[in-house]
């Protein structure tokens, strides 16, 4: 599924991953950038909008305007979601609405508008606590341990059914933890915010040394999306996107402290839940990316380098907010 030189709509375009993808496609595609700005920032799209072939539309996927917005669109890149695993345990309803219902509405609107290709941002959490690590795409059965993971697995299934039933080819990307500038959620963001408030003491969720997971830098993730989509063969194709290795939460905290040039920071641990930070937190995750590497793509950053680079990328903007 070619992405360049197409008429493309990006949902969640003002968010972290969506805005970086918009930056890369803005030169070669006609873009409709859709976001309700619930967590995204229009400022993230300044670069893409400057290139002239992009327009921004503030719209909620759960609203009624999607069919007219998608008129003439060839490919939909779907990044809008509630990406917070932790809050999905406190109340599963927003995750159900914003991920499952919104994706269904988007697929329906896409079908009616004659969209030919659908790219879905999915997640490593669809694997749950996988018995095989690094975990390849064909691993199963898929048993997510969080409502967030379940919602994304449902979205994958919906996209598969639209691909087979209506000929709307789909490509699914299962991301490890993506880090980099403009991200406003996840452990890097969380720890930086805490250290801004108190540079001497850092409360970390979980039990020392915390979970061990793979982190991928946004530049590697965006290149992965382009490479995977380019090579994908229908009706539905699935790619893992991650780095080769994992890093513990303690190492992340130490990296951020170093990048913020702080010293003598006292770490305290909350204890967490069942070995993870919270209910539904996967303890160990590395994705097998052999399939994406077949396209020639390689991650440039290890997990530790990705986190350090993300801290550098984002520090000035984190600190301004
Ligand atoms: N960042 C990660 O580590 C990661 C990992 C795996 C999967 N993903 C998935 O990638 C996608 C993008 O994640 P992100 O980190 O950029 O998140 P993000 O929160 O930065 O971006 C999501 C964007 O969607 C918008 N949005 C949310 N609900 C909407 C709605 N109903 N209508 C219109 N806009 C809406 C938000 O305003 C935000 O700009 C998500 O689907 C997420 O589940 C992210």
Overview of the structural elements:
There is one protein chain. By secondary structure, the protein is of the alpha/beta class. Helix content is about 40%, strand content about 20%. It has two domains: about 5-180 and about 215-240, NAD(P)-binding Rossmann-like Domain (Rossmann fold, 3-Layer(aba) Sandwich); about 180-215 and about 245-285 and about 300-320, UDP-galactose 4-epimerase, domain 1 (Alpha-Beta Complex), CATH 3.90.25. The protein is built from eleven helices and 14 strands. A seven-stranded parallel beta sheet has the order 3-2-1-4-5-6-11, sandwiched between helices. α6 links the parallel β5 (about 115-125) and β6 (about 170-175). It is globular, with a radius of gyration of 19 Å. The mean pLDDT is about 95. The structure holds nicotinamide-adenine-dinucleotide.
For the record, give the distance between the C-alpha atoms at the N and C termini, rounded to a whole number.
38 Å
Mean pLDDT over the residues: 95
Shape-level CATH architecture of the largest domain: 3-Layer(aba) Sandwich
What's the main sheet like?
A: 7 strands, parallel
Helices, by number, come to 11
Unreliable sequence segments: none
Strand content range:
15-25%
Number of strands: 14
How much helicity do the residues have? 25-40%
CATH topology of the largest domain: Rossmann fold
Biggest sheet: strands side by side, in what order? Answer: 3-2-1-4-5-6-11
Helix-and-strand structural type: alpha/beta
User: Radius of gyration, rounded?
Assistant: 19 Å
Shape call: globular
Number of domains: 2
Secondary-structure element string: EHEHEHEHHEHEEHEEEHEEHEEHH
The kinds of small molecule bound in this structure are: nicotinamide-adenine-dinucleotide
């Amino acid at each position: 599924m070619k992405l360049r030189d197409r008429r493309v709509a990006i949902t969640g375009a003002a968010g972290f991953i969506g805005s970086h993808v918009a930056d890369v496609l803005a030169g070669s595609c006609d873009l409709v950038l859709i976001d309700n700005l619930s967590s995204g920032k229009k400022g993230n799209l300044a670069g893409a909008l400057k290139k002239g072939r992009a327009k921004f539309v503030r719209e909620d996927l759960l609203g009624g305007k999607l069919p007219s917005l998608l008129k003439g669109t060839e490919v939909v890149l779907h990044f809008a979601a509630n990406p917070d695993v932790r809050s999905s345990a406190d109340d599963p309803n927003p995750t159900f609405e914003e991920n499952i219902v919104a994706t269904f509405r988007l697929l329906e609107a896409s079908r009616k508008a004659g969209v030919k290709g659908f790219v879905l941002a999915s997640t490593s959490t669809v694997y749950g606590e996988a018995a095989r690590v690094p975990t390849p795409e064909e691993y199963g059965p898929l048993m997510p341990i969080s409502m967030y993971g379940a919602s994304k697995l449902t979205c994958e299934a919906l996209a598969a059914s639209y691909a087979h039933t209506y000929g709307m080819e789909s490509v699914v990307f299962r991301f490890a933890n993506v880090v980099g500038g403009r991200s406003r959620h996840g452990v890097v963001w969380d720890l930086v915010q805490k250290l801004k408030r108190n540079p001497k003491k850092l409360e970390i969720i979980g039990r020392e040394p915390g979970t061990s997971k793979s982190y991928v830098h946004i530049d590697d993730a965006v290149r992965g999306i382009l490479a995977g989509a380019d090579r994908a063969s229908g009706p539905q194709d699935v790619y893992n996107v991650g780095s080769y290795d994992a890093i513990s939460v303690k190492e992340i905290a130490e990296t951020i402290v170093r990048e913020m040039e702080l010293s003598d920071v006292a770490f305290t641990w909350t204890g967490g839940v069942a070995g993870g930070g919270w209910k539904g937190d996967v303890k160990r995750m590395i994705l097998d990316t052999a399939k994406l590497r077949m396209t020639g793509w390689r991650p440039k950053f290890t997990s530790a380098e990705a986190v350090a680079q993300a801290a550098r990328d984002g520090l000035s903007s984190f600190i301004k907010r």
